[in-house]
Automatic annotation (TrEMBL):
Highest rank taxon of the organism: Bacteria
Biased composition (Basic and acidic residues): 63-76, 85-97
Region described as Disordered: 63-97
InterPro entries tied to this protein: PASTA_dom (IPR005543)
Name of this protein: PASTA domain-containing protein
Organism whose genome encodes this protein: Sphaerisporangium dianthi
Amino acid sequence: MIVPDFRGQQALNAWLAGHDAGVLLQGPDPDSPHPVMNGVVVAQEPRPGTRVARWEPVTVWIRHDPDDGSGVREPSDPVPPLRALKAERGDLPESNG
């Protein structure tokens, strides 16, 4: 198998591409409880273009950027309903009931 260039890829996409190419991606600590799934691949060993045996491990180093925009997309402070904002400002007509 020829080792593909995984650098710059999202970790999960790199892992899937490695599987399709017949190599196994792993982090620098293979016994780590954290799988290679999040972040961007910044380095790898063996280098791209190296010939290896099928299912040979390829070690990848991942950059985990907390501000990369991935992850939860919901606001951390929910926006109140429009009518609640109007009531707070006093924009709603008072009910006489």
